[in-house]
Amino acid sequence: MANSSHHHTVNIAYIGGGSLNWATKLMADLAQDRLLAAHVRLYDLDHDAAVRNARIGARFAEVSKGYPARYDAVRSIEEALTGADVVVVSILPGEFEDMAHDIDIPAAYGIRQAVGDTVGPGGFVRALRSIPMMVEIAEAIRKTAPKAWVCNLTNPMSALTGAMYRAFPEIRLWGECHEVTKLRHQVAWIGNRELGSERFSHRDVTVNVLGINHFTFVGSINIGSRDMMPAYRAFAQHHGNSGWAPRAQKPGDEHDHYFMDRSRVKFDLLGRFGIPAAAGDRHLAEFLPQAQYLDEHEAWDFTLTPVSYRERDRAQKRARADALAAGEGVVHAERSDEALVDQIKALLGFGDFVSNVNLPNRGQLGGVHIGAIVETNALFSASGVTPLVAGRLPDELLTIVADHADRQTAMVGAVMENRWNDLFDLFHSDPLVAPLAEAEARRMFGEMIAATSHHLPRDLVRTAA
């Protein structure tokens, strides 16, 4: 990464560069930053979407507070990766139609899913169609940019990060998720409420993260030198029955309806296991047997997000993006809640930075097999990405986490070694699927595989039929 006296050049390859969500967050973060001079190459299977985003990026560059970033849409992954210092991977594995099958087929068998992209039947089949895509990307990185730092934003995070490490063991990769930020926002709110002023942001809150992606917990909470755990426990107990949100839900707002997190599952898990849960309720619920939360999701104040809403939301985002690309509307150089630019600057040597990320377990999370993908804090510095020892979860919780981590590891191994016959038993062992009789579960698995067969290896489709 080249430096000059005025700015610090970083070449970023964005795989999935037509993104309607993460790409514009990165553009805003680069525009508000004063140190980096970024050249971002956007690669997407939908080249027109990458071209649109390059136009939007040029608008963000115009309002940059520092050195304006450059955005180019490129036609091959090799062109994007050549000379890259950092690679961002943000793809949609398949279409929303595939995700609809992931949700609707299990629903016909009585299985409820709030998200369906991480665990449960939906997360499992999404991983099956995603792993070959991520392996292809990892192999392209190995050939063209083996020393680049790689940030994966794609779900299912644990399985796909694991697959990339299996494909290219020396890859310099971390999986990035913002779910823990929700708890940090809550703690900042508690601190500000006590002071009577808006002094703290989530960036002032430090937590020790333990778990796996979307099933994360925190063993300590601090603002500066103050231990916020007692205040958080009192807050969770006070709001346990009523739930809590930072503002009132906007009437008729679909996004608020489906995504506003009232934390009642979080608060209940704290009561059950003695350690605060960090991820959002919709994700947390899917790691546990359906009877615990999903069957009574309305009573627990969270929703099951239908894919039809995601399709409407995507159409709105696409319309907004087209308008921005055409020069309409206003873009702002405002910092998002995402940590990627902070992480990049730390890797360049501009001060250490700690954040929660997904990495192979090297002992940072006790009681989980070495090599499994786990989520803990890591130190970003000029020396690289170093996982920090998080400790160990309470035994009852550790059993749940280790079970999911082992299943994810085994599923990745089975796909990458073409052991298709091993997949059904893993699928059936998930807590959401396990209550089904074997014949029923096998029929559901076959239907789900058939519905997304155009994205899957033929031998897998044949085995599941």
Automatic annotation (TrEMBL):
Binding site for Mn(2+): C177, H214
Residues flagged as site, Increases basicity of active site Tyr: D117
Entry binding sites for substrate: N155
Root EC class: hydrolase
Pfam families (alphabetical): Glyco_hydro_4, Glyco_hydro_4C
Cofactor: Mn(2+); NAD(+)
The name this protein goes by in its record: Alpha-galacturonidase
Keyword Metal-binding: yes
Keyword Metal-binding appears in the UniProt entry: yes
